[in-house]
Prior knowledge:
Layout: H1 4-22, H2 30-35, E1 41-45, E2 48-51, E3 56-59, H3 62-65, H4 74-84, H5 98-110, E4 115-121, H6 124-140, E5 151-155, H7 164-168, H8 173-176, E6 187-189, H9 209-221, E7 225-230, E8 234-235, E9 241-242, H10 247-257, E10 261-265, E11 289-292, E12 304-309, H11 310-314, H12 336-351, H13 354-369, E13 378-384, E14 387-395, E15 400-401, H14 408-418, E16 421-422, E17 424-426, E18 429-432, H15 440-458
Parallel strand pairs: 3-16, 5-6, 5-7, 7-10, 10-11
Antiparallel strand pairs: 1-2, 2-3, 4-12, 8-9, 11-12, 13-14, 14-15, 14-18, 17-18
The protein binds pyridoxal-5'-phosphate.
Pyridoxal-5'-phosphate binds next to helix 6.
Amino acid sequence: MIKTSDAKKSSARHLEKLDKQYLWHPFTQMQDWAKSPQIIVQSGKGPILTDIRGKKYLDGVSSLWVTVHGHRKREIDAAVVRQLKKIAHSTLLGLSNVPAVLLGEKLVSIAPRGLSKVFYSDSGSTSVEIALKIAFQYWQQQKPVYRQKTGFISLAESYHGDTIGSVSVGGIDLFHEIYRPLLFKTRKIPTPHCYRCTFGRTYPDCKLFCAEQAGRVIKRYCHETAALIIEPLVQGAAGMLMQPPGYLKKIRHLCTQHNILMIADEVATGFGRTGKMFSCEHEYVSPDILCVAKGITGGYLPLAATLTTNKIYQGFLGEHRDLRTFFHGHTYTGNPLACAAAIANIDLFRTEGTLARLQPKIAFLAKQLQVFGEHPHVGEVRQKGFMVGIELVKDRKTKQPYPLEDKAGIRVVLECRKKGLIIRPLGNVIVLMPPLTMSTKDLKRMVEIVYAAIERTTAG
Ligand SMILES: Cc1ncc(COP(=O)(O)O)c(C=O)c1O
């Protein structure tokens, strides 16, 4: 008779074989994947992921920045099941559905002031594509003098997704350089990143020189610019680069002053990640267009939304023959199951006081992170809420980075796995993005594992 554990092992081996045989994983060098041990997740609960061999891991990156209240949250499970008993999908093209309508109201109620219309899609990238197309079309439908407002300004090193439009406004060459011939041209403003300041200045003595430089570009090109797009406060995929206080507000002011739309991409920062529902709130900023995805369903189902002001929405109204319609839509736009999950996710913020309970944990995490203090191979620890970047450097004094071939970040992450923590690096930056409900005990354990892994992999 085959013992249960043996059966489990052989079925695990079988799944691993199938994975290698059939799957092509995103952002993954499959040549390495084929050789490396893999983790196939079977289940999850709270902050824990369990693999097919029964090994448990802390989910230190919220399953790629999406899990908010933890895995298998009772209220979200129930909302999805309730909706499943009614209908799984119907279209928003020419029809509507109950959860999509109710979620629309809820999103507007929590969004920064002035955003009052909701356009659904299914990923962060599509929410950005939609924002860009709306901004572009908006100006085309204004007075003729505005028809030349066709371009976009974005931050160097920004990341807005992997579709062609979002890559065009992005700036991470490592990911996207090869696609350059496919992209439309955009203007870039310098990344406001104090640790490696482009201008060699120091905050606050610099008096936000980076924003002043951004102002020059905006002023010069505003007549041909539809919108500026920004990840407010934290440029996530660039390596958790944090903007200095006051920068976002200045950018908002410059956009208004020079009559260009401001698109805030809160795909990563939204839904409590930075300690407020949306990171724009830290600087009392309202964008003209807001992109949200990732945490919108609490990490359950693919859903995104692009919110706009009524003024922009009005710019698309007209007779059928005027062709001012926004001709854009995805098949699963406003999917009822995803919208039901999103409603339950947002309701939990209120019923569980998620943001209030998060504040002391943010401070607790900051305290734990002090352990990296003067570590010779940690250049900087950056934190905003539950978004953390630990930048590994070869030499702390000179800030010399590890070369790509050292795979410094990858080695740390693999070491963490052995100790039961799943995280994912961004180059030399170790990213921590735990679910907002992770306990202080688990936060402490997470930091301890990372510290030990950095010690072990950087020694010698
Ligand atoms: C700021 C930002 N925008 C857009 C995206 C793209 O989202 P998705 O992967 O859902 O297309 C991401 C993904 O990490 C992101 O961080």
